[in-house]
Amino acid sequence: MEKSLVSVLINCYNGENYVEKAIRSAINQSYTNLEIIFWDNKSNDNTSKIVKNFDDKRIKYYLSKEHTSQYEARNEALKKCTGEYIAFLDSDDWWDSNKLVKQMYLFNNPAIGFSCTNAWIVNERNNKKYLAFKKIPNGDPLSNLLKQDFITMSSLVVKKDILNKLEYSFNSTYKMIGDFDLVLRLSLLTEFKSTQDPLTYYRQHFNNLTHTKIILNILELSELLNQLEKNLSIKNNKNFYIFKNNVLFNRVLMFSLEGKKKLGIKEMLKIKRIKILIKAMVVLSLPKEIILKLRSLKNE
Questions:
Q1: Residue with the larger pLDDT of the pair 220 and 209
Q2: Per-residue pLDDT tens for 110-121?
Q3: Which residue pairs from 217-224 have beta carbons closer than 8 angstroms and sit at least 24 positions apart in sequence?
């Protein structure tokens, strides 16, 4: 697979504190046949200077004409990729030096259209790390994704010709769940393979736990659920009910955080899984401050 060119897509906005580590982890890969498509989403910090200080012809720097959403930026960056494979690396994450070598080996099976690795989640506050997933599933990606989103975006590698078969790449109307939406649609087109090795380092930022972002994520999942209800290939999947019940629980969480208990109870009554129903009942009984504290502690 070393003959195949891999386009490493790094999308960045004001990443001066992290971007050097991300780029260095890409150029130091033991898999050397790669290009780095660096898309600067109109940063106003020292990002461009840091990127241009690297003396590596494989780095191709592009400056956006205007600041856009992250998914619009990724779609623009994809147009610059010339590789047979596309690997995504967020500007605040980084890779193990053997990440691409081990992952590209998975594509020796021509039926595989996309793959991922396990990941280390690195706590930004104390720099401690923990494994993202005890075990990543293989095969039947749709059924497994409906149970749990197990693909860390910076671990994703996809064949470009498979990506081109999609009606569109990233849905730019999303601000939070565009990654999950993408891999769900990929799972309808091709087979999938993963490696249990944690070859990706995902930096955990605690501003991701803000009330506003929690609510936005839930609203987007609700919209996605409405869309998937119309897609029989997904709706008829054996695990669709799991995804639906998880979204309903998140709606209960949203209404509880907003102090709208009656609406929360209405959503709770739609839940069919006993474990999720019990969780929803507990959430409805707790004040907003306790819920947010528990979510924060969960990620410590």
A1: 220
A2: 999 999 999 999
A3: 217/176, 217/177, 217/250, 218/247, 218/250, 218/251, 218/253, 218/254, 219/254, 220/174, 220/175, 220/176, 220/177, 221/177, 221/247, 221/250, 222/247, 222/250, 222/251, 224/177, 224/180, 224/181
